[in-house]
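Usage example:
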Amino acid sequence: MTSVMDQTSSPAPVPSNELLEDLVGVSGRRRTKNAVMTGLMFASVAIIAIVLGFVLVTVISKGWGIVHTKFPHWFTDDIPPTARRVGPGMKAAIVGTIVTTLTATVIAVPLGIAGAVYLNEYGKRNVFARLLRFLTGVMAGVPSIVMGLFIYVFWVLPRHQEGLTGLAGAFALACLMLPIVVRATEEMLKLVPQNLRDASYALGATRSRTTLTVVIPKASAGIISGCLLAVARASGETAPLIFTVSVGASAVHKTNWNVFSGPNTALSLQIYANAKETLASAQDRGWGAALTLIALAFLFTLVARVMSARLSKKTQ
Amino acid sequence: MTETLAIQTPHVGHASEPSAASGSAPQHSVVFDVRDLVVHYGAFTAVREVDLKIHPNEITAFIGPSGCGKSTVLRCFNRMNDTIKGARVEGTVNYRGVDLYGANVSATQVRKHVGMVFQKPNPVPKSIYENVAYGPRLAGLRNKGELDAIVEASLRGAALWDDVKDRLKSSALGLSGGQQQRLCIGRALAVQPDVILMDEPCSALDPIATARIEDLMQELKAKNTIIIVTHSMQQAARVSDRTAFFTTEVNEANDRRTGVLVEYDRTDRMFANPSDARTEAYVTGRFG
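Running the assembly step on the lines above writes:
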């Protein structure tokens, strides 16, 4: 049909075989390919889901009992002083994980964001910025136990027994979080379009003002989710805490809210310590601690998602 | 201003004549006096040997093919080229008697006198109100009542007030493209600039939104001097009092293109009776 006027008079055109072949001929092959690729992708999602589901089901089924018996005692009682004793109590480790992770966050997040702002807004491609970027990459690759050893040698040892504190653990965790925060923040700042910065400059704003009032708010959703991923990662770390918050993983049973003095413990340390024991009483507590840690990490992630969704609604 | 009966470079027309449109301004006052302007980006020379004068309360249009340096020259007037790494400016850009690239001149202060509207509407991701209040807040204004008054006046000035007065607190990103561009104009007006630079302000807009912006420019001319870069010759002919035509010259030695100012004259004369053959070819549509 060539024009509206022809519509009524001319019959429907009969397509040539060449045209038919060209327009629909290849669709059979394409359909097969599409089905195979879709199947493969579905299979990989299914494998991931099965593994994750298996971990979750195992941890919940083995850990739920001790968390659940004599409920709120798991959260309100200190850890039993001997592994032999049956029953709940994980408050010391829950508190320890929360205070050390929180302290590490307070140290690493401002430092990391400031570093990323320098890299992306000020240093850009200069020599110092390139060096920093390289070192951040190296730092991200350092095994977590080396971070623990580093803090042990330079912070704990000079202070002898007094050096073993939640703060020392927080330092080690902060070292782990720092490169993650810097990387995530820099990536988010890179995504802020230059024309927004120009808008601010054109009104007579300085670079620092532009960074604070336009660039960071625009990137905030991504920065927050990056930081909370770092927090979730740090809260599950065991190795950096082994020689920083206490001597050995099972030395502390009493709750210590003070990060600055006295040894501490953490959920990850309790999983490690209790899993080594042959006694069922201890193993139960280990599973309970694992469940609690997973729940905590889930909570962090949930908060991150909600916060960044709220912020991106405001700024996108 | 002291001297202005300036010597024109040979290829520049009689631009020092007062335009019929320039109302109360004294006859020979100029806003910008550009001499021997050369802009380099690293080793690349973007535009060279530009001499022109911008007259108050007029609309000056920069036209020419892509890569001819018209945006680059525009960005010299508020020192936006400073934000581009490797950009170097030679020659002088004199703004009402002050050398903009002089030793102690602050680029951020320059931009409070010389506002800018960009090709792509770029409201910051805040509310409509906050976008307009951004400039006055930068200047240290905190009084809510005064800010409210400035926001209203600026949005009225940008012919946007009636569209948005009931949703000042909602996100500026919810506006249409044309509204966003008028918001950007309003935002520029809020700092009470002397000059407004417009870098292809209508290229992302539909014809109706374009017409509204063009009407707005005519209103703004009473108080402001406007320089507009445009790809549309029709737009230049419609809105401007003077037109500068830029083109590219190819350096035979290294095959690099450099922008040059070909002709600068009153718009009516430029389109009716251009003195340079290249201008004639361009405005009649034979090239570019």
